Amino acid sequence: MNNATSLDVKTYAETMAEALSLPLTPEYAPEVEANITLAFRLLQLVLDFPLHDEAEPAPVFTAEVMRT
Amino acid sequence: MTQWTHEPAHEIAKAVRNGAVTARQVAEQHLSLIAARNDGLRAFTDITANRALEKADAIDAAHAQGLKLPPLAGVPFAVKNLFDIAGLVTRAGAKINRDYAPASADATLVARMEAAGAVLLGALNMGEYAYDFTGRNAHDGHARNPHDTERMTGGSSGGSGGAAAAGLAAITLGSDTNGSIRVPASLCGLFGLKPSYGGLSRAGTFPFIASLDHVGPLARSVKDLALAYDAMRGADPLDPVCTNGTAEPVTPSLEGGLAGLRIKRAGGYFTRMGDTQAFAAVDTIARALSADASIELPEAHRARAAAFIITMIEGSSLHRDRIRERPQDFDPEVRDRLVAGAMLPGDWYVKAQKFRRWYQAEVMKLFQETDLILAPATPTSAPLVDQKTFVLDGQTLPVRPNLGIFTQPISFIGLPVVAVPVWPAQGMPIGVQIIAAPGKEALALRAAYWLECQGIAQAKVAY
Predict the structure, then answer these.
(1) Which of B206, B93, B209 is nearest to B153 (CA)?
(2) Looking at residue B2, what is its pLDDT?
């Protein structure tokens, strides 16, 4: 699914639009599909990079006394 | 008579303090120029003339009473229209937001600029919801580059670039999630400061990507950037990431020169995918700063990709209800990216945020051996307003997402950057990023100020 070359982007977009109640008219569809294709290509660069299970995401939540 | 629209902010403030001009005269000159040029430039979307003149009169009254005037007394400024201005609807470049209630209070940075004596002239055009590198806007008209109105300003802070370059305001505020201060600074030939993540308060601004959003100034002089930063810095309990109440002022060290600064240029990723002008500008700055060695930001291409993924998913999450309910009211160029982003799995986001931490740790190691890193700000100078593609390294690529290829890997980890403009013998300017470690804005500004004093980097008013 993450390989943009084998992904049926049109089917993916139509399925996700229906599942998530997103607008996808014939007017929007070509650009939406182009953006999904681009996202999958860029995602591959991120997924290909090895990270340990212990890797922490960048944002850090701090439990602190609430300011009033 | 002096044309105060062509003077930098620090000269205006000095003249107001000295009594060489009144704040009202300065404000009136700027309002007249806005009236004459704004239709062609599409820089301002809202003009707060009454508020400006009232503020100017208050400054003149204080001066007449012999009171000490604040550092930006009488300096005209304007803000990207995602900053709240009390009584105005915060457009955020969107048609939809015009149906929302007007802001009940000013954004923190608007209030801090006014507290420092600056005079608010109004709100500035921007790419819809800041999801943009071009300055194009389907609702308010495309912002036009004052140095060549057939060309784009860059975005998303397009009006911020256009207004400062045309002399419509001495200082403008913009936001920068992936490059939206540095791109218009580059294309409009301005100095721009994207501070450290959390360095300036975002409270009272319409958000885009909370984990990447920055705000900061654009201006025609480095000293003006420093004065504005110092006027606005400081923690704000209303912005959970703006917590550093001890950030040092940057103005006192501005004239410190280059002594002791270790400066290198970014290699690898930052030497490809740009045109000859972009790299020649870096050569010019590097030569002047004796930055002979290169340094590699590891995996910068993946950093750009991860920033892109985070932006798509966070942005779509923010606008999900608006996409569902009013898709026809979006700028199509923005809507289609947001619809696509809403279809992406959440685990992509987490992976990108984990990579972000790894990348931050690696880049921070570089700052043990260097203080400043130089990189292009944009891959080309300003494209034509309606230009959809350009050729980079032999590849035909869309302009809109790719104007920020050199800025995204830097803001991704919140590093402070000063964009400095370099002009060719003929033609349009282009910017170079001077990148520092978090909290080290003062070092980047010192180098930028030195370059400006040498005449190597400079901003010009477009006539």
Answers:
(1) B93
(2) 86
- The arithmetic mean of pLDDT across residues B153-182, rounded, is 98
pLDDT reported for residue A5? 52
Q: Is the dihedral of CA B42, B43, B47, B53 positive or negative?
A: negative
Q: Give CA torsion, residues B377, B379, B384, B390, to 10 deg.
A: -160
Alpha helices in B269-373 (DSSP H): 276-288, 300-325, 332-341, 346-366
Which amino acid, residue A44? Q
The predicted complex's ipTM stands at 0.89
pLDDT at residue B408 is higher than 90? yes
pLDDT at B253: 96
In angstroms, rounded to a whole number, what is the distance separating the alpha carbons of residues A46 and A25?
A: 30
Q: Which domain holds residue A28?
A: 1-68
Of B180, B196, B201, B316, the active-site residue reads B180
Order the strands of the B191-194 sheet from edge to edge. Answer: B44-47, B119-124, B76-80, B171-176, B214-219, B191-194, B417-422, B430-436, B372-376, B263-266, B294-295
Buried b (16+ CB within 10 A) or exposed e, B239-277: bebbeeeebeebbeebebeeeebebbbbbebbeebbbeb
Which of A33, A35, A37, A44 to probe by mutation at the B interface, max B CB count within 10 Å? A35
**Residue B207: DSSP 8-state:** -
CA B128 to chain CA centroid, nearest Å: 16
pLDDT of amino acid A1 = 46
pTM for the structure as a whole: 0.96
> How many CA atoms are closer than 13 Å to the CA of B49, on its beta-carbon side?
10
B381 is catalytic: no
Sign of CA dihedral B362, B368, B369, B372: positive
**Chain A residue with minimum CA distance to B359:** A58
Q: Choose the closest CB to B343 out of A22, A25, A51.
A: A22
- List, for residues B236-250, the tens digit of each pLDDT value: 999 999 987 667 899
**H helix count then E strand count, chain B:** 14, 15
Say which CATH topology domain B4-453 has.
Answer: Amidase signature (AS) enzymes (3.90.1300)
B180 classed as catalytic: yes
Q: Is the Cβ pair A49, B312 closer than 8 Å?
A: no
- Compare CB distances from B299 to A32, A49, A55 and report the shortest one's residue: A49
- Cβ of A46 and B309 within 8 Å? yes
What is the residue extent of each domain of chain B? 4-453
Interacting residues of B426 by C-beta distance below 8 A, sequence separation 6+: none
Asked whether B417 and B174 are in contact (CB, 8 A), the reply is: no
The amino acid at A28: Y
CB B376, CB B282: distance < 8 Å: yes
Q: Identify the band that residue A39 occupies on the pLDDT scale cut at 50, 70 and 90.
A: very high
